[in-house]
Design goal:
The protein has one helix and 15 strands. With 228 residues, it is mostly beta strands. It has two domains: 99 residues, Immunoglobulin-like, CATH 2.60.40.10; 104 residues, Immunoglobulin-like, CATH 2.60.40. β13 and β14 form a beta hairpin. The longest helix has 17 residues. About 7% of the residues have low confidence.
């Protein structure tokens, strides 16, 4: 019986000790490398944590909540004790009077070891055609990876088009995302197919297609289905 009580109180003490109280420090750490192809440390580089929660009824800490500089090995550690309980935290850096995100989806009031992060975490993907019939040189395809915009902002490809054809290889900067089904960037692509160079009345508007580009994985595939 005495042994059982000892085990109970020991487990209780460990549980209590693992629970952080208000005012305790939370840490987010990791190592910043240049790229997947060139994984050398990025040293003497300033990163910061940003909390995007803003509410007049909840005057908690928002905006920039911690700053750190990477060491010779590219390692960094950021500590904070006060921030909003809601709203996502992101790891960012400044560039050209703006900010860029390295990691998104960090939950507040939790310790994180982000591991290796790439300053230029690039992904390449190919755009392929799926169709059940051929097209001719009179057909023009406008496609846009932002999922909208005017025709003039679209990339342009002219026919003929055939099933399985690769029409482009595109480049995208990938942001590492946490607490999502996949650690990938979620993009969309839309397209308009115009039949005839002057007659634009006949058009097929493709809905935004969701696809993923995984960090350090090149040549993910997105398919434009222009079947009729």
């Amino acid at each position: 019986m005495k042994t059982a009580w000892v085990i109970f109180f020991t487990a209780f003490a460990l549980t209590f000790a693992s629970c952080k109280r208000e005012g305790d420090k939370y840490t987010v750490k990791g190592r910043l490398l240049k790229s997947c192809d060139n994984p050398v440390p990025v040293k003497n580089f300033t990163v910061y944590l940003y909390n995007d929660h803003k509410s007049l009824s909840n005057p908690c800490n928002s905006g920039q909540i911690a700053t750190a500089t990477t060491n010779e090995n590219g390692e960094f550690e950021l500590g904070y004790d006060k921030t909003c309980r809601s709203g996502g935290i992101s790891l960012q850096y400044d560039v050209s009077f703006s900010s860029a995100t390295l990691v998104d989806g960090i939950e507040p009031k939790k310790d994180y070891n982000l591991g290796d992060i790439y300053y230029r975490d690039n992904g390449f993907y190919i755009v392929k055609i799926k169709t059940n019939q051929p097209y001719t040189s009179s057909d023009t395809l406008f496609y846009d990876i932002t999922g909208g915009g005017k025709d003039s902002s679209y990339s342009i490809a002219t026919g003929p088009f055939y099933d399985g054809q690769v029409i482009d290889t595109l480049y995208e900067t990938v942001v590492k995302m946490l607490n999502y089904p996949t650690t990938a960037v979620n993009e969309s692509i839309s397209w308009i197919l115009k039949s005839g160079k002057t007659d634009h009345k006949r058009r097929y508007l493709g809905q935004g297609q969701q696809f993923y580009i995984e960090p350090c994985k090149k040549y993910s595939e997105v398919v434009l289905d222009i079947s009729k």
